[in-house]
Amino acid sequence: MSDSTVTVMQLREAMHRFVAERQWERYHAPKNLVMGLAIETAELMEHFLWLDVEESRLRGAEPAHRQAIADELADVTCYVLALANSLQIDLSDAVLAKLAKNAAKYPVERYRGRFATD
To answer: What domains lie within the chain, and their CATH numbers?
Structure first.
């Protein structure tokens, strides 16, 4: 299984099953899920702390760090999926809508090769 064969809905359903099998629904209030997401994001950030830009790009390719980074990224994703399930937000719709807003806010002809400061 890979990104090219698994849909967002399949991931959401897998997360739903995982939570339901453990009867954790009562703990999965949006407030709790967002706090868990912040914690997992901080754990992911730890892998890149104190590295310069180039070192941070290379870190994910290092065998000693790659699996741990993948695990933390998966934890972040699981919380995002659980939050989408809890709030019944369609992630694909949300991401595509946000990309459209960002495309209007940051037109290519103005921002190509430049970061946004406004």
So the answer is: 8-111 (1.10.287.1080)
